Amino acid sequence: MNADHKVAKNHYQPEAQAHIIPAANLDPETMALLVKCCPAGLYHIMGDGSLRVDVHGCLECGTCRMLVDEQALKLWRYPAADYGIHLRFG
Ligand code: SF4
């Protein structure tokens, strides 16, 4: 079983509001870094050159937050209690 199959088995309770919002007009290097760093592959560069993040699959690992400065992510917070990823053990 590869990493994509394992990530696909996770369970999430989506929030109505996104808990991660990238800033507009990021430089190409920062966008490429975010695309490359996310272990769940949630960042995508769209056809118009903008950056999109699909927060419903977020592992809440914080990697993206740690690798870019505060201006690059307009918002990064953990989802509210009972929302986001539901961690399993075993
Ligand atoms: S917190 Fe982790 S899983 Fe969530 S978007 Fe950032 S890098 Fe991806």
UniProtKB/TrEMBL annotation:
<dbReference type="GO" id="GO:0005506">
    <property type="term" value="F:iron ion binding"/>
</dbReference>
<keyword id="KW-0408">Iron</keyword>
<protein>
    <recommendedName>
        <fullName>Ferredoxin-like protein</fullName>
    </recommendedName>
</protein>
<keyword id="KW-0813">Transport</keyword>
<keyword id="KW-0411">Iron-sulfur</keyword>
<dbReference type="GO" id="GO:0051536">
    <property type="term" value="F:iron-sulfur cluster binding"/>
</dbReference>
<dbReference type="InterPro" id="IPR012206">
    <property type="entry name" value="Fd_FixX"/>
</dbReference>
<comment type="similarity">
    <text>Belongs to the bacterial-type ferredoxin family. FixX subfamily.</text>
</comment>
<comment type="function">
    <text>Could be a 3Fe-4S cluster-containing protein.</text>
</comment>
<keyword id="KW-0249">Electron transport</keyword>
<keyword id="KW-0479">Metal-binding</keyword>
